[in-house]
Amino acid sequence: MATPPLPLTAVPWTPALADSLAEASAALARLDARVSASPLRAAWLLRASWAGYAAALTLQQSPVEEIDIIAERCALRLPGRALVRTEDEPFAAYEPWAALLTEPEGRHWSDGLPFTFDPPAGWREAPALVRALHLLDAAARADRTVAPWLAFPLTARRIGLTRTALPCMVPGDASQRFAIDPRPVLLRRLLKTVRKQAEDGLERLDRLEATARRTARAIAAEHRPGKLADLGRIALARPCLAARSLAPLTGLTVSGAGKLLERATTLGLLAEVSGRGSWRTYVAPDIAVSLGLRSAERGRPPSASAPAPEVEAILQSFDSEMAEIEERLRKLGIAVED
User: Fold this and answer.
1) Which top-rank group of organisms is this from (predicted)?
2) CB neighbours of residue 31 within 10 Å
3) Which residue in 167, 28, 155 sits closest to 94, CA to CA?
């Protein structure tokens, strides 16, 4: 009978491990604080869920990428993108997971573990982040599905690491399935992954907020904005659009929706990713950067001058009008993630 691997909570501490723990914990805390206070929290959580789900599928050796998940969730076929062909249903676990991410607080972190929990050596003294990584490590060996990877954001919130379930936080390592790497090496690698994912999540939030500010300024500067404000709000919940998908959400014809998308692209509110003359596809600028379809802006950002009254009004109405858009989506039978 194989000897059980050393629990991550019992790994001897070294200066390098302590540094990795401090960096990972700080990055996670910064992301949690920013997301909790951001007015674009709902839009970020949606985008973060796509990134986290893609990370989990990568750990399962799936060929599905984040761009495929975005296209599937936005019900679009991206031109030039081959259909995803796998032996299983790669998107089947997304909606149940998304529902769990929005569950009310109160469930204990041990609920749903795929193994019988007995406190391992060092559990009582271990930092909360190391405890969460130990639970991930044990679950990855007990359950070979995608579930252990996806459970980490929930575990982190339930164990008290974060106030919000952060969907982009899906650390893991394929070697965990077999416990073949030295445990200190594995723990340090997992801590580095936590730090990198938290930093990436913060960068995505910065890009999303910058996009929202730029959109508000551009709309306020237009003499006749028309449906541009509606489009800006829709793009928060559906950042991948085509004329045929936008038309029913705005009450425009397909031709009118196409002209609106072209106008928004000219103003820099969207980025075209199709390169085709028919059924053009557009994505929000922050999504284009995240997927490598567009380069991030370089240099010092423009100075944030005092917003015009029109900009202030647009920003203040975002939440209420987003609720109206979500209600339209529900009436059309389109799932809306909270």
Assistant:
1) Bacteria
2) 26
3) 167
